[in-house]
Amino acid sequence: MRVRGAMELVCGCYEQVLFGFTVRREPGPSGPKEKWTPVADFTHHGHAASLSAVAVNNRFVVTGSKDETIHIYDMKKKVEHGALLHHNGTINCLKFFGNGHLISGGEDGLICVWDAKRWDCLKTIKAHKGHVTSLSVHPSGKLALSVGTDKTLRTWNLIEGRSAFIKNIKQNAHIVEWSPSGERYIVVIVNKIDIYQLETASITGTISTGKRISSVTFISNSILAVAGDEEIVRLFDCDSLKCLCEFKAHENRVKDICSFEVPEHHVIVTASSDGFIKMWRYNPNKKTPPSLLCEVNTKARLTCLGVWLDRVTDAKDELPTAAAPSPVNKEEQEVKTSPSKSDDSSGKQQKSNKTTKKKFSLAKDSKKSPKQENLVSVKKRKLEGILEKKKKKKMQISE
């Protein structure tokens, strides 16, 4: 994938706000190195609870929250595109595959496959007996992995929308991630990383750290960046299991980490409880720790992170036709996409497909016009009413 120019850091926090920072790349004062500068682009308070997950593709940013909703933002038009209501409980994980599909997992044990153009729920899978804590889609788009609080690692056939394999891992894992090539995957349990080979589905090695691991990202097929409940980020070789280098990234624990590649080098992005988002330059060919490219202080308690890139789409980023969820007739679709019996808000999936559009709160435009204030539609008010009822219900139960 080739970065065409536009680059946006998006980050969620406990304070229910989504931040957006445009990263400007300009020639440096001396030498060939560029100067990277993050500039505030927007802040948006769309959720009624803290943000728990964020995912990006070429066009959209989606966020999940403890308020049980998924919000969609169109980054090309800079408008809020709508909200999806299908889960009961916190949205724990969101993953795009290409530009066509979004997969979500939540505390209700469900995995949902969404059409990322019409925003219909194509399939609902009862994935785990407990919460779905993490999921990852194979680069081919034909398989997915998930872990949950039922102490299982599950492999899913996305072509047929069914379970392909269940492995009892005897402990609750909270992260699962495929390597870029899809030849291996990792499963994280507290402070331990088990590395699996796809061909044998067996563990080929284990990496341990001192503190609980909060986030991981593959820099390449063999190099893994690991962040946890400390200020240090470590880079490991998945073949030798050795720590290649470590560096102090923040003053507090690192909550999320991601990476991408530009022609000159790899870029690692970190977000921390200290409120800072930082970008790091890393060259795997040099035996030196990453160097700081730029940083920005949000002054918020950050929880999740993504990088939206305006990039040229590779053919491999599109979901193969064979890997698209199998077609179903209207009657079957009603059964598969309707909420489970435990879902007390019947029919809310149908409401979720009726998206509304609302301008972001741009950082440079703090004053809103009357027209912008009135952009909240009747459907949006209904959504807020549903959330309010759920809040009251939970309060009554706790009392």
What does this structure look like?
- A 5-stranded antiparallel beta sheet has the order 28-1-2-3-30, with no helix packed on it. The protein has a 5-stranded antiparallel beta sheet with strand order 4-5-6-7-29. Strands 8-9-10-11 form a 4-stranded antiparallel beta sheet.
- The protein is mainly beta and 399 residues long.
- It is built from 4 helices and 30 strands.
- The longest helix has 21 residues, at 378-398.
Secondary-structure blueprint:
Layout: E1 2-13, E2 18-27, E3 34-44, E4 51-56, E5 60-65, E6 70-74, E7 79-84, E8 91-97, E9 101-106, E10 110-115, E11 121-126, E12 132-137, E13 143-148, E14 152-157, E15 162-168, E16 175-178, E17 184-189, E18 192-197, E19 202-208, E20 213-218, E21 223-228, E22 232-237, E23 243-248, E24 254-262, E25 265-272, E26 276-282, E27 291-297, E28 302-312, H1 330-337, H2 348-352, E29 358-359, E30 361-362, H3 370-373, H4 378-398
Question: What key attributes describe this structure?
Answer:
399 residues; five-stranded antiparallel beta sheet; 30 strands; 10% helix
Quick description:
The chain is mainly beta and 399 residues long.
Characterize the main sheet.
5 strands, antiparallel
Uncertain residue segments: 313-356, 362-379
- Quaternary structure annotation: single chain
Mean pLDDT: 82
What is the tally of beta strands?
30
Q: What's the gyration radius in Å?
A: 21 Å
Helix fraction by DSSP (H/I, runs of at least 4): under 10%
